[in-house]
Amino acid sequence: ISAYPNPFNNNTTVSFKNAGNSPFSLEVFDACGKRIFVTHTAKSVNDLHEVSIRSDLWPSGVYFVALRIADIWRTSPSILKILHLK
Predict the structure, then answer these.
(1) CA proximity to 65, closest of 22, 9, 25, 10
(2) Which of 5, 16, 70, 84 has the most beta carbons within 10 angstroms of its beta carbon?
(3) Residue 48 has pLDDT above 70, yes or no
């Protein structure tokens, strides 16, 4: 599981391999453990899946991307940095 870009600003894409296209869920949690995003669908090419995540309304901080395929969980930290341009 990987998120690109990381750190990100407003949009990131999470990619992962899912051999056999098993059922999965992809969730994003904030640093306090609150689930703020979940999906069960993804664009796929062969076994590679990509999920685009928009974070327009999220504050800057560290988020955790959690992927569950069958009974296996994988997590990855991602950093959202809001750029304030003057």
Answers:
(1) 25
(2) 16
(3) yes
| HEC letters along the chain | CEEECCCECCEEEEEEECHHHCCEEEEEECCCCCEEEEECCCEEECCEEEEEEECCCCCCEEEEEEEEECCEEEEEEEEECCCCCC
What distance separates the 2 farthest-apart alpha carbons in the chain?
48
pLDDT at 44 (0 to 100): 65
Rounded Cα distance, 24 and 28, in Å = 14
Sheet with 24-29, edge to edge strand ranges: 35-39, 24-29, 61-69, 72-80
From residue 16, alpha-carbon distances to 54, 56, 65, 76 in Å are 18, 23, 11, 11
Phi first, then psi: give them for residue 81, nearest 5 degrees.
-125, 120
**What pTM does this model have?**
0.78
